[in-house]
Every structure is written in structure tokens, then in C-alpha cells.
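Structure in, sequence out. Go:
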């Protein structure tokens, strides 16, 4: 695999270096781990042409029905519908080889999230796995594009849908989220007890 580009524009606040995470739409403290994760996001965007809106970073497993878990998936790639998980990505530091221990960790995430594809990378090596209903996850070549990934076996991994979760205030202020979930907002069909004044902003 071609070595990933690692250029990131830096910002300095209170003497500390940050960069802007476009997936999470926030400034992130610069660390080797986070830089590696963002470099991998660039690879998927530039090489596989995955839309930014279909990439999530540092996703808590609690969001996907595992309230007892405190770990996070490094990167998730969603199908065009924005809900179904297509791939899970595990990012490692450059000095960590992508060995069987890393692959075992990757596939635990993939199985828990029911993703069809699973990627593991340290920035120079990339290993790719794809789910087969008869034989489980098998190593394969890196897909040529996001479009080809989405033409894959959509029904091979059942129940690979994101679970409903309560959005935080920052998420509710995101206009993209508002537009996507417009039908979930209070309207004529909303039950009366949910329309009480305390649910509305103070004038």
C-alpha cells in the first residue's frame, strides 16, 4: 500500500497544537494516534472517493448497543443511506505491525458492528477483510472505490444498522443532522404531552 499522506494544517491554542477534524467538526488536540487516524481518513476520501458525510471517527461502541463497553471504533464507513455500517477501520501507529493480534482485534469490532468490510492499517501496510456468509471474514484486496464497495453483498451482514441514540446539544446544532432527521422534530403528529412548554426554548 502506498504510504499515506500525513500533511495536516495545524492551529495553536494556549500553546497547544490542534488540527480540525472534518468528520467530527471540531478541533482535536494533535497526538500521533489522532494524526494517524486523520491520515487514514484522507486515504479513504482521496483514493476510494468516500464522501466525508459517510465517514465517522472515534465512535463509541455504546452508540451501537453495547452500553457496557468503553472502547471506540477508530473509523466507520457508512453506506450511502448514512445508517448502515459498510466497514470498520482499525488504525495503528507506524511501529506496530499489522499482525494476527491486530487482525483479531479488528474482526472483533467488525463482528460486533456487523460490517461487511474490515480494514487495518499502520500508515504503510493495509490489510482488508470481507465478510462471506458461508466462511466469515476472509482477507481480500483493497476495493478500487467506494462505489464498488457499495455494489457488494448488501444483505450479507444482517442488522448492520445504527441504533437510535439521544443526540447531544452539539449534534442538534449541526444543520446537516437537522435536515437528515427533520421528520423527527415536533410537529402536528407529535403527541400532546411532548408539546408542553418546557420542551421549547425560552422566548
Amino acid at each position: 500500500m502506498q504510504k499515506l499522506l500525513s500533511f495536516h494544517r495545524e492551529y495553536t491554542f494556549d500553546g497547544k497544537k490542534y488540527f480540525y477534524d472534518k468528520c467530527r467538526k471540531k478541533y482535536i488536540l494533535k497526538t500521533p494516534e489522532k494524526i494517524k487516524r486523520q491520515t487514514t481518513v484522507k486515504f479513504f476520501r482521496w483514493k476510494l472517493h468516500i464522501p466525508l458525510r459517510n465517514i465517522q471517527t472515534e465512535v463509541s461502541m455504546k452508540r451501537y448497543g453495547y452500553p457496557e463497553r468503553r472502547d471506540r471504533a477508530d473509523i466507520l464507513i457508512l453506506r450511502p443511506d448514512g445508517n448502515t455500517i459498510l466497514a470498520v477501520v482499525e488504525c495503528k501507529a507506524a511501529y506496530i505491525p499489522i499482525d494476527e493480534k491486530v487482525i483479531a482485534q479488528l474482526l472483533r469490532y467488525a463482528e460486533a458492528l456487523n460490517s461487511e468490510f474490515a480494514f487495518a492499517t499502520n500508515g504503510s501496510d493495509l490489510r482488508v477483510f470481507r465478510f462471506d456468509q458461508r466462511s466469515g471474514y476472509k482477507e481480500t484486496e483493497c476495493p478500487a472505490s467506494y462505489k464498488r464497495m457499495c455494489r457488494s453483498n448488501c444483505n450479507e451482514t444482517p442488522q448492520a444498522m445504527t441504533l437510535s441514540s439521544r443526540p447531544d446539544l452539539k449534534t442538534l446544532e449541526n444543520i446537516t443532522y437537522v435536515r437528515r432527521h427533520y421528520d423527527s422534530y415536533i410537529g402536528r403528529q407529535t403527541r400532546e404531552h411532548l408539546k408542553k412548554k418546557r420542551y421549547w426554548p425560552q422566548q
